[in-house]
């Protein structure tokens, strides 16, 4: 069984604002995910978006293709092409009050060579914190 990891933050913004930003993230991930560039929307229809982007890490630059689906209040990023992993990341938003929202990112990545779960908890945490900062700054 593969193990998912998650990170949660409280966003000082209403659910609808957070949701609109999660939808914006589909086409503009560089505002939410560290080290992203060269974002290209390959295909978009009412059911899903196919996105290609470059991710630069200290010792590796890679191209990733994802299929993205959005159903209130969850956006799923499913890996279609990645040099080392398969799996998905879910972004969920849950209203806690009129002005606060819980943002939960859940990652289930599987190493293609070893078929073991990846533990990218620091990468996941950095993405949630960057998202929190971007959303809270945007609504000021």
Q: Strand order across the biggest sheet? A: 1-7-6-5-4-3-2
| Number of E-state strands | 7
* SSE order: EHEEEEEEH
Over all CA atoms, what is the radius of gyration?
15 Å
Largest sheet, if any? 7 strands, antiparallel
Q: What is the count of DSSP helices, taking H or I runs of 4+ residues?
A: 2
Fraction of residues in β-strands: over 45%
Helicity, as a percent range: 10-25%
Query: What is the mean predicted local confidence, pLDDT?
Result: 94
Based on the model shown, name its key terms:
single chain; 140 residues; alpha+beta; seven-stranded antiparallel β-sheet; 7 strands; globular
Structure description:
With 140 residues, the protein is of the alpha+beta class. The protein has 2 helices and 7 strands, in the order βαββββββα. The protein has a 7-stranded antiparallel sheet with strand order 1-7-6-5-4-3-2. β6 and β7 (101-111) form a beta hairpin. The longest helix has 18 residues, at 121-138. It is globular. The mean pLDDT is 94.
Fold blueprint:
Layout (H helix, E strand, L loop, with lengths): L4 E7 L3 H13 L8 E9 L4 E9 L2 E12 L2 E8 L3 E11 L5 E11 L9 H18 L2
Antiparallel strand pairs: 1-7, 2-3, 3-4, 4-5, 5-6, 6-7
Short structural summary:
The chain has about 140 residues and is α+β, with helices and mostly antiparallel strands. It has helices spanning about 15-25, 120-140, and strands at about 5-10, 35-45, 50-55, 60-70, 75-80, 85-95, 100-110.
């Amino acid at each position: 069984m593969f193990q998912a990891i998650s990170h949660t933050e409280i966003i000082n913004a209403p659910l609808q604002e957070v949701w609109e930003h999660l939808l914006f993230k589909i086409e503009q991930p560089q505002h939410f995910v560290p080290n992203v560039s060269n974002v290209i929307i390959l295909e978009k229809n009412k059911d899903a978006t196919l996105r290609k982007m470059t991710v630069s890490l200290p010792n590796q630059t890679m191209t990733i293709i994802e299929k993205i689906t959005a159903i209130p209040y969850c956006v799923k990023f499913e890996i279609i092409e990645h040099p080392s992993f398969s799996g998905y990341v879910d972004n969920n938003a849950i209203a806690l009050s009129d002005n606060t929202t819980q943002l939960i990112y859940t990652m289930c990545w599987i190493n293609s060579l070893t078929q073991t779960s990846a533990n990218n908890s620091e990468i996941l945490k950095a993405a949630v914190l960057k998202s929190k900062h971007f959303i809270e700054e945007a609504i000021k």
